[in-house]
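stage 2 :: seqdesign
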């Protein structure tokens, strides 16, 4: 199977497996795991933040950020197709007691003036706007790199209004590699950031949240409350350190493979392939008379896996376990099935 359902499906590399075996460990709830400490310090340095915290997943990182920034009854602004809104089981409402308010973006990019207009005035009837959440790259929009200028404008507005900004940077490494803009420059436009080590970077487990030291201290407590205080976590932090320090540059290969796949299938009549910016390819299949599900069933018979991304849209994600040769095989199979 050529598995392009997500970049989360990769298996740990040999170096990661070795790190799991060899990393020094301690009780991380006592802050005594040297490998976790090393990972957190490295991540904070790379993101240009005072401190960082190792968390189990991107979802947990986002939840902890919202819980730490907000009070129950707050409103949180985010793009209408943000992962936090669509794919996290309404957990910010369930756990933090906040209400999301969405702003429809253009391919995931919000108009800063619409963000400004959505900030609540001081009025007894209204919730207080407690947080603005950004996402880069934007998953549902198809791995779109949100321009740094857009983030700067939104952050300037947030500063004027004294509202914190959190970045869901599950794939911020992809944004940085694709744009050539350093990670820190993106992170500078936010108060806190969450990055995933288990997506394109291939770690088996883990995300980082980074921000001011006093924020991370409170976040650590929220992580404990959520049951995310781990003990000898160096076992997973070791592979995560390999991901953070050895796997970033190779994301350019995933991006090249995504462009190669898109180019290879874009002339098939009945398929509409969206522009590729990073490691995701969105393909609309209704022109072939297919639904996403019927198209994916046929693809599976051809040995190719992707996921539905709407009733008539599918998403492919290139990843470490899919080689350029696999891409060429996938293109050949799709072209011979659907062309002419
Ligand atoms: C943008 C974004 N944020 C957060 C997450 C959640 O990450 P996790 O699956 O580690 O909980 C994902 C997962 O795909 C994502 O794409």
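stage 2 :: out
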């Amino acid at each position: 199977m050529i598995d392009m359902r997500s970049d989360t499906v990769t298996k740990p590399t040999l170096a990661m497996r070795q790190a799991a075996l060899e990393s020094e460990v301690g009780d991380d709830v006592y802050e005594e795991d040297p490998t976790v400490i090393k990972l957190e310090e490295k991540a904070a340095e790379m993101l240009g933040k005072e401190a960082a915290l190792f968390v189990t997943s991107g979802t947990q990182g986002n939840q902890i950020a919202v819980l730490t920034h907000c009070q129950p009854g707050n409103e949180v602004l985010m793009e209408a197709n943000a992962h936090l809104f669509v794919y996290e089981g309404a957990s910010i409402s369930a756990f933090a007691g906040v209400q999301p308010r969405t702003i429809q973006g253009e391919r995931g990019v919000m108009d800063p003036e619409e963000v400004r207009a959505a900030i609540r005035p001081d009025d007894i009837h209204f919730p207080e706007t407690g947080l603005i959440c950004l996402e880069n790259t934007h998953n549902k929009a198809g791995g779109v790199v949100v321009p740094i200028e857009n983030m700067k404008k939104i952050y300037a507005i947030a500063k004027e209004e004294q509202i914190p900004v959190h970045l869901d940077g599950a794939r911020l490494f992809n944004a940085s590699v694709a744009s050539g803009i350093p990670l820190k420059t993106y992170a500078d436009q936010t108060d806190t950031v969450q990055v995933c080590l288990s997506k394109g970077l291939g770690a088996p487990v883990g995300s980082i949240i980074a921000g001011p030291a006093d924020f991370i201290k409170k976040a650590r407590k929220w992580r404990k409350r959520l049951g995310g205080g781990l003990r000898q976590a160096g076992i997973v932090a070791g592979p995560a350190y390999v991901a953070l320090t050895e796997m970033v540059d190779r994301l350019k290969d995933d991006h090249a493979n995504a462009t190669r796949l898109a180019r290879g299938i874009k002339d098939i009549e009945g398929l509409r392939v969206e522009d590729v910016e990073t490691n995701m390819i969105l393909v609309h299949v209704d022109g072939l008379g297919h639904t996403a599900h019927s198209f994916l069933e046929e693809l599976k018979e051809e040995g190719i896996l992707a996921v539905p991304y709407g009733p008539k849209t599918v998403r492919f994600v290139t990843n470490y376990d899919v080689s350029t040769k696999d891409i060429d095989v996938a293109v050949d199979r799709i072209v011979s099935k659907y062309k002419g």
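stage 3 :: structure notes
- Residues 12-246 form a domain with the Aspartate Aminotransferase; domain 2 fold (CATH 3.40.640.10).
- The chain has two domains: 12-246, 250-338.
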